[in-house]
Amino acid sequence: MRVVVPSAPGGGFDLVGRVLAQKLGEQTGQAFVVENRPGAGTLVGTQFVARSSPDGYNLVVGGLSNIALNMGLYREPGYDALADFTCAGLVVSHSYTLVARKDLPFASLAEVIAFARANPGKLNIGTSGPGTGQYIGAAIIAALTGVDIVKVSYKGAQPVYQDLLAGRVDLFYDNTTTTRPYVESGQVKALAVSSRERAPNMPQLPTLAETGVVDLEMETWFGLFAPARTPRAIVERLRAEVDRATRSAEVRLRLEMGSGRSLRIAPAETEAFVRAEVAKWTGLLRRAGIEPE
Q: Is residue 293 part of a domain?
């Protein structure tokens, strides 16, 4: 069984692929081999599985980026997320947190947006480059609030933190799991979390919607996907095994990485959720002025 991770080792896609491959292998007595196929964002690995034999032996870790965002980011992504894949189970979801350098003289997101509106181009926000959740979130927040905040691209999150901690970058929209240690140590200032509900480990932090500034909910979710023409019996077996795996407290702990939210959703609800996410983000990308390449 091949589990394709459409990114380099490390990060959310890779973690989900390796945790599930190990547990599914233990449960079934079959070898689940993780294969990293990075390239063109998440396109290369996802395209590979979309074109693979639908025999149940080729799976891909699917998430917000390659299943939903790519449908609005590329004119010809090389696959149709809804037509070419079927979900064997969503397993975890992670929120984002908007943080600021600790000496930024604003106490809330409302104050940040008010300043940005009165001073176009005076604030900047670090991003991990076009196509990433960090970039998309930053662009959509700016578009929905009608402000001009300069986006500064970096090759990954860690270089952003170096400049954020040094005071050279004003803002950063990043995975809550990554931002949390910096927030708890007082190295950065948290402004809002992107999930529908407040983060359990940061209950004092308002959601984006609660700030009254922007009505946006955004979580990066992950699961396993198979080619759409995979026989129903095989898909049902995979779904049962993924569901069984996510009942393990150890698996949930590893997937959540401290700030994630475990997902166990029925197949019909999963299909509806994925369709809704594709429609939602395709629309939001257009509203943010991000045209497909």
A: no
Residues 131 and 190 grouped into a single domain: yes
Q: At which of 171, 194, 211 does a domain end?
A: 211
Residue type, 151: K
User: What's the domain range around 167?
Assistant: 94-211
- Per-residue buried b or exposed e for 209-231, using 16+ beta carbons within 10 Å of the residue's own CB: bebebbebebbbbbbbbbbbebe
Model pTM score: 0.86
Residue 285: is its pLDDT beyond 80? yes
Q: Are residues 9 and 109 in the same domain?
A: no
E strand or H helix at 237: helix 232-245
Q: Are 222 and 16 in contact (CB under 8 A)?
A: yes
Residue linked to tokens 């992504």: 77
Q: Could you tell me how many helices (H) and strands (E) the chain has, helices first?
A: 11, 10
Between CA 275 and CA 29 the distance in angstroms is 33
Confirm whether 241 is domain-assigned: yes
For residue 97, list its beta bridge partners: 174, 193
Residue position matching structure tokens 């894949």: 85
Q: pLDDT class for 208, splitting at 50, 70, 90?
A: very high
Q: How far apart are CA 129 and CA 134, in angstroms?
A: 8
Strand partners, 219: 95
In a domain, 118, yes or no: yes
